[in-house]
Structure formats: C-alpha cells, structure tokens
Amino acid sequence: MSTNTETEAFYREVDEKHLVPLWNITQDALPAEPRTPVKPHLWRWADLRRLAHRAGDLVPIERGGERRVLGLVNPGLGGKHAATRTLWAAVQIVKPGEIAPCHRHSPSAIRFIIEGDRTYTNLNGDKCVMSRGDLVLTPSWDWHDHGCESDEPMIWMDGLDLPLVGDLDATFFEMYPDHRFPITDVNESERKFGVTHLRPTWEKPPEDRSPLLNFKWEPTYDALQRIGEGPASPHDDVCFEYLNPNTGGPVLTTMSCTIQRVRPGVRTQAHRQVQSSVYLAFSGSGYSVIDGQRFDWEEGDFFVVPPWAWHEHANPTDGEAILFAIHDTPVMKALGLYREESYTEGDGHQEIRETFEP
Ligand code: 1HN
Fold this sequence. Notes:
single chain, six-stranded antiparallel β-sheet, 16% helix, binds 1-hydroxynaphthalene-2-carboxylic acid
C-alpha cells in the first residue's frame, strides 16, 4: 500500500528525472479537437500605413537589419513574433532609390503589392517588376534584393513560413557578399511561364519550386470578374488558388495563396479548416465572422483566421470586395492532417455574439 508521502516522492522523482506522467496531462496532450491559443485579430490599414511611413522616416535599411518590415504579432501567442503559429505576415516599405540588400533564407516568402509601382524583387538575377496586386514569390533559399525605382515608396504585404521553419529548427540565413545580385534578365519567369497553359519547350522547368515567380494582377483580376453571376464556393464565393503551373499544386511547399471576390450582397456560409490564414482586404469593404465575432474590414486591413475557427465572409456593399490570403494548408495536407467542416446549423451562418474593436 502506497502512502501519500510515497506518492509525492514518486512524482517529485519523476519530475527531477525529466519525465512526465501522461495520465495527468491526457486532456492537454489530446484535446478532442484543436485548441489554439491563436486569436482572431484585425490590424487597421490606417495604423499599418502610418507606422510603415514613420519607419521610413526614422529607420534606414542597413546590412544586419536587412529590411524595413513591421510584423503582425498575434495577441494570443504570448509575445511570439508571429501572426499564427506557422505564419509571419507584415508590411514592408521601400523608399525611392533604396535597395534592400541581397540575402537568402530557408523560410519561403510571398509579397503582395499594396501601394506603389516601378519597384522590383530581384530573384537570382531575374528582376521581377512589381505593381499593385501582383503576387511575387521568394521560394526557400533563392537570393533576393528589392529596389524602388519610383518617386513614391512602395508598400507590400510579406508572408513567410518563418515561425514554422523556426519551430522545426530548420532556419538558415546567408548574406550575399555584394549589396545586390547581378541582374541578368527582366521578368524572365513571367515571360517564359506567365501564360500558364503554355510551357517553353526549350527549357526544363525547375523541379523544386514554381517556375513562375511573378503572378500579375491583370489576369488575376480578369479571372475574378469572368465568373460573373455564376455559381461559386458557398464558403468563399469567387475564390481562386494561385498555382505552381508546373505541378498544379500550391505556389510554395509550405504556403498557399488565394484571391477571392466576395460579390455585392453575398454572405457566405461558415466553415472551418485545419489551417491558419492571414487575410489582406485588398479592395472594398465588408466583414468576416470568426467564431461568432464580427470583424469589419476596409481596404488595406489585415486579419487572422486561427486554425479550426468557424469563418464566413460578407460584402454588404454594392461595390467590389477582394480578399487576398496566405494559408499553411500545404503543410497540413503534406502531413495528412488537413480537415474541413461545413457549419450546418440553421442557414449556415453563425450567430454574431460580439463585434471586434481594434
Ligand atoms: C525577409 O527576408 C524579407 O526579404 C521580408 O524582404 C520579411 C521577415 C522575416 C524574416 C525575413 C525580405 C522578412 C524577411
């Protein structure tokens, strides 16, 4: 017969020997469904833009600091520098004449251009010229620098798998010996692979990454409009995923990107997925309901949808509402963990219990 003292001594020794008794933590280790600390949250464009410009006035781009980037910090993550557990999202500003120095890292990145033009990301020598609405990839370990040749600053959204790669202890980083990588061509990937139903026969596309690095806004916008009044996703309305034209799969191994048009008067039905997402309200205004909380968004606002959170989108205006988003879905699918569920109560809409005030 064990006594209380014996039991206490046992637990003390288990702890001292760096062990844990599962029978005391089973509910934490194995919740019935994902229980995330990640909070749904919204960042106002007025703040992001003002602070990005303020950083532009106060902070030079220098070697070591590398980039003038303001990252979103999810309030549920105890100060961890991340928008969700897997995703980093940020605004970056580059001013006229500046060149953000060349480097490379194992985390992959995307840029989605919000403001400005005549700015480029130089990817291994391919000068990808960027304008509002363009999506530009920086796949893992590609050399990249950014330059602004305009009279106005450029601001874009950065999305990276940085927190995931960090938690996997798989982060590598290297500075290029010169400030910039020698430019060998302009819009090369876009000219060769940008008409995605045509493949250059004289070239073998790279196997490890998308051959197309710059996804231009005009054909993207056109695709959103061409659906007209036709049927689309009950959960996302007119929503397209950007593809690696070589594989038909997501643009990066760790992140997928979507562009979606919520048509005037539409309120989609809620669903939830084993994935986390960061949205940019690219144009127009509307709202999303995330786990019963209403998030009103306007042009330029960023918001987070946590894993396994019910969410639906609405455009109560008679104007355009376009959302761009990054997701960690490819990770979940590659690991066999992806799940998706539709909200079946009532008419598929959540009850709005509160409204988010930033
Ligand atoms: C990075 O290298 C860039 O190259 C942007 O523009 C944002 C955030 C975290 C770590 C590296 C860039 C980044 C970043």
